[in-house]
Amino acid sequence: MSKAFFMIVCIICISSRLFSMHKNNKNSLFYGYISHFISLYSNIKLILTLKALFSSIFLTIFTPMKETLQHIKESLSPIFSQREINSLIKIIFENLKGYSQVDIIMHSDDELSDYIKNKIDKILSRLLNHEPIQYILGEAYFQGFHLKVTPSTLIPRPETEQLVDIIIRENSRPDLRILDIGTGSGAIAIALARALHFPQVDAIDISSEALIVAKENAKTLKANVNFILKDILNEPAPCEPLYDIIVSNPPYITHTERTHMEPNVLDYEPHSALFVPDSDPLLFYRAIAKYADRALSHGGRLYFEINRNYDKETAELLSNYGFEDISIEKDMYANDRFVSATKTSHV
Q: Distance between CA atoms of 67 and 111, rounded to whole angstroms?
């Protein structure tokens, strides 16, 4: 309740009283003044009482956003870095309020309702149990759009966005035939279907639950992708080439490496999309290379996201299957993360 509002109400009351007095009682001007000012005094007391009441209610229901921001930072600081907290704040307020980073700063003195505060408290409680924010909100940001994610799908990473960028950069011709192996939420397949010129995109996964999510994402984002339930480890190679590009971000973390992983990954994300045996870390790369040897057209391209500890081994594997122009690229953290190769002959 601002002072300006109070002043406006007072002016309206005074003007109304004086006009009424002048119109109805011109001959009793003196007594009219006294009577109406007594009445005005009573009204002002009423206004002040109402002002105090509404201010009390207003302060009870609303809390400035900057206080909630401080509450979030203090709550999450025991297990998250400041950089992670700032990122989480951005994600939370974009989801709940549609705010950008600039909006958060500009609206820091705005009030938040109990409804929003309660939702934030529930989110904080789940974050403190190491649950990924993407699963809490049910969505992840990838290549400029929002994807639905569930515990049945791996959360797409920024590194995988880089893989998509590499493919888009190197393949500009139209009508490419593309296969995404281990599609999960459909992130790679949908991004390529939206970015390339009239591609024909197939995407396979062993998980029927993941494919349900992927199909929903494709429908929401109006991406034309053909999703198929298949296990690449047991998929026979085709008799003739079917694709110009095959891409995969398969499971590549060995069980030994589990000890170095964060609880938000280890406790919540699907293990079938993450882990391979210590005895065979290239299990999926071998199966995909064998399949791609027959499925790729002459000059077709194979793209992998890889375990940085097995970059040279992956490149050697592809060489053994007759792939050429083998290239290893680093991710944003300077780790060897991507391998690409060209198919020119069949083994």
A: 9
- CA dihedral of residues 125, 129, 131, 137 (deg, nearest 10): 0
CB atoms closer than 10 angstroms to residue 277: 10
Looking from the CA of 124 toward its CB, the CA atoms found within 13 Å total 20
Show the tokens assigned to 73. Answer: 């930072």
* Residues 43, 108: Cα–Cα separation, whole Å: 36
Encoding tokens for residue 342? 């060209």
Q: How far is it, in rounded angstroms, from Cα 262 to Cα 79? A: 11
- Three-state SS at 81: coil
- Residue-wise pLDDT for 222-232, tens only, equals 999 999 999 99
Kindly list the distances between the CA atom of residue 17 and the CA atoms of 13, 39, 41, 49, 50, in Å, as whole numbers in the listed order. 6, 9, 11, 20, 20
Which tens digit of pLDDT belongs to each residue from 267-296?
A: 999 999 999 999 999 999 999 999 999 999
Q: What is the pairing mode between strands 243-248 and 296-305? A: parallel
Q: How far apart are CA 182 and CA 231, in angstroms?
A: 9
DSSP 343: E
